[in-house]
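Input for the complex:
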Amino acid sequence: MPAVYRVDRLKQLYTAAKSLNYGWRFEGVPTQPLNNGVTRYIPQLHRVTFYFCKQNENSVGMRNFIANRLIQYGSTHPSVVFYVQPIRNRSPQIVAEYGNGNTLKMYPTNKNMQDVERDVNLLLQRSGEDIVKLVSCQTSKCPSIQGQWTPMTWQSTRMNVAELPDKEFSRHKSSKMSATEYVLQQARQKQENTPE
Amino acid sequence: MNQARQLAQFMRQWHLIDANQQDVYKLGTKVAKYLSGNWKPIWHPSTDCGDHVVVINCQDIAMEGFDWKHRQFHFNKEYPKSKVNIPAYQIHMYDPCRIVYLAVYKCLGKSNIRRSHIARLHLLPDAEVPSFLMKNVGNQLEQVQEVVKRSTEYTDEERRNFPRLVKFPEDHVVDWEAPIDNPGRHKLYNPYERKSKIQQTPTK
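Predicted:
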C-alpha cells in the first residue's frame, strides 16, 4: 500500500491558525457614524413612517399611539419627520430611515400602545449602525501565567539532557501489580514475618 | 516570547516509541493518536497538526492470544484470483515492519486524511535508528504495556531465589526453558500456489 508523500504546506498551517478561538478578540466595538458627537451631535434618525390600517384589529396599538402620543414625540424630536400612512387591510409597520442610509423596520402587529411606544423609542435611540455583540468568547479574571500551550509544555525536562532512546522514558507506568511482583512481594512479607 | 510559543504550537514534533513486546493494536491506537495530532489541545479536523512517529523494534512486536496464526490480513488487488488471506506471522516473516504499518493504518480511522498521516510514520525493524532520523527526535513516548523479562534473561541465581509455589516430583520433566527452533515439519501456507492447483485439476 503506497502512501502519497507530500511536502508540508504552509496554507494548511495558515488555515489552522484561522480556526483557533481568539478569546480576547471582541466581535465588534461601539462606533458612531462619522465620529458623530466628537465635536457636535447630529441626530441620525431622519424619517419615521407609520403604516397601519384604520379598521383592522391588529393595528389598534399603532392607532392609539398616533392618537395619543405622536404629537408629543413630534414636538420633542424636531429633527425627525414623522409620516403617517393609513393603508387598507395592512398590518402595521414602522419604517425608520437613518443618516447612514440604513432603513430599519419594525412590525408591531397585535401590540398595545405601550409596546409600540417602546419600539419607537428604540428606533429613536439607535444610530442606524448594525448591532454587534460586545461580548468576548472567553473571559478570564486572571490571564494565564504559564503562557500558551506548546507541544513541549508537559514534556519531561529530563529528555533534554538524556540520550534517546532511553529505556527509562519508554517504561510503561501502571498502578496495577503484575503476578510476578505479587508473588515476590508475598514471599518477602512472609520472610520478614517469620521469627528466626 | 508569545510569538515564539505560537509558532511552536504548530511545529511538527518527532516522537520515538519502542515496540518491543507491545501489543500491536494497543500500540497502533497510541501511534495513530500522535500521527493525527489528536492528543493536542489545539486539535481540530481542519487543523493539520499531526506529528512524526518513529517506531523502533518492530520485529519484536506482540500479538494477543493465537493472533499470529489466526489473524488474517485480507488483500485484494481487484484482479482475478488475487484475493488472498495471509496470516499475520507470514507477513511478519516477509517484512517485520508490515504488521505495525497495517495496524496503525487501521487505527487511523477510515477518512482519506489517513494517507497523509501514515506518511509521517517511520518504522524500523530493530533498535538502530539512522542518524538523519534520530537528529529530529525530541520526545520518547511511554510504552503501552510492561516489558516482561524473558525466561532466558533470568540468571541461575535469580531462578534459585524465586519463591517456590509448587513442589515438583523428582521425575518431573520440564517441557522447555527456552523457545525452540522450528523443527521443520510445518509447511508454510502459500495462497497463490494452492489456487493454481485447484485450477489445474479439471484439465487433467
